[in-house]
Amino acid sequence: MIDTKTRLLGLIGYPLGHSLSPLLHNQAIEEFNLNYVYLAFEVKPADLKKAVNAIRAFGIRGVNVTIPHKERVIPLLDEVEPLARKIGAVNTIVNDQGKLKGYNTDLSGLKRMLEEDASFVFKGKKAVIIGAGGAARAAGFTLCQAEIAEISLLNRTVKKAEQLAGEWSEYYPEIRIKGGGLSPENYYQELKNSNLLIDTTPVGMSPNTDEFPVIEENALHSGLLVVDLVYNPRETVLLKAARRAGAKTLGGAGMLLYQGIESFKLWTGKEPVVENWKKIL
Ligand code: NAP
């Protein structure tokens, strides 16, 4: 029941479209019988500072932060967890008596998905990441933090892949990291001896579900775990091809789910039941 003690949780982003976060978080609030409500707030970039001040003024316990605010929100916070600062992106804010601290649960979310839904072990493994945007950034830092042995980052715009790979190498000199173009040669060469492929491009996302992100389907093999961060549709063209090649596959819904669980834990100290959220997704 909503009363004078009810506190807000929420999501800020622009545009928000059809976010599943309110459904998931409000289910957990109900499950634990907590006096919170989770709402989605469309906040235009020009209003971000006002929105962050409103978190303080209204005593909002915490918010998720999504595109396009993940980077620009950082200077507006009182404190940022070291890893989120290193990545340069915050997706969760916790308000402790007016003091706002930023976290990035995308990383722990992706790591949990790989470990819990595919039993993936990082040490000694090689990964190929396709794309060099915000999601690739989160994926690369996740793998480096988990002490993977080698990463090959392939992107349509080669310069961006080289820049990001260079940045990771500075932070993690013990990991073999290189950036290159998304050519058929690189694709075959790098996937041949890889254990993990993470596609971080939006290619294949609804409504353009027939698009294929990779150049050659034949490069996929049964020794791979193939992850597509796109979660709509559930099984993308890439994942279908990977399944045909005998590879293990994971869609992006798990990352969404686990990062949300980590955020909810930061705000409330309670851990939503994974199976309940999976049913909703
Ligand atoms: P972004 O910053 O815009 O980066 C997109 C990347 O994809 C860029 O490197 C871009 O290459 C590449 N790309 C785009 N279209 C391409 C094409 N037709 N062929 C080859 N490469 C292409 O986007 P983002 O924030 O990283 O998000 C990417 C995707 O990840 C979205 O679909 C998003 O929904 C998904 N995502 C999922 C989760 C989750 O929880 N599951 C979390 C975050 C993001 P260039 O550099 O050459 O432009």
- Ends: how far apart? 25 Å
Q: Which strand order spans the largest sheet, edge to edge or round the barrel? A: 2-1-3-5-6-4
Number of helices: 10
- How would you describe the shape? globular
Return Rg in Å. 19 Å
Flag low-confidence runs: none
CATH superfamily of the largest domain: NAD(P)-binding Rossmann-like Domain
In short:
It is built from ten helices and twelve strands. The chain is α/β, with parallel strands linked by helices and 281 residues long.
Question: What report would you give on this structure?
Answer:
- The chain has about 280 residues and is an alpha/beta fold.
- It folds into 2 domains: about 120 residues, Leucine Dehydrogenase, chain A, domain 1 (Rossmann fold), CATH 3.40.50.10860; about 140 residues, NAD(P)-binding Rossmann-like Domain (Rossmann fold), CATH 3.40.50.720.
- The protein contains 10 helices and 12 strands.
- The strands form 2 sheets. The protein has a 6-stranded mixed sheet, with helices on both faces. The protein has a 6-stranded parallel sheet with strand order 9-8-7-10-11-12, with helices on both faces.
- Helix 4 packs across helix 9.
- It is globular.
- The model has no long low-confidence stretch (mean pLDDT about 95).
- The structure holds NADP nicotinamide-adenine-dinucleotide phosphate.
- The site of NADP nicotinamide-adenine-dinucleotide phosphate has 22 residues, from helix 5 and helix 9.
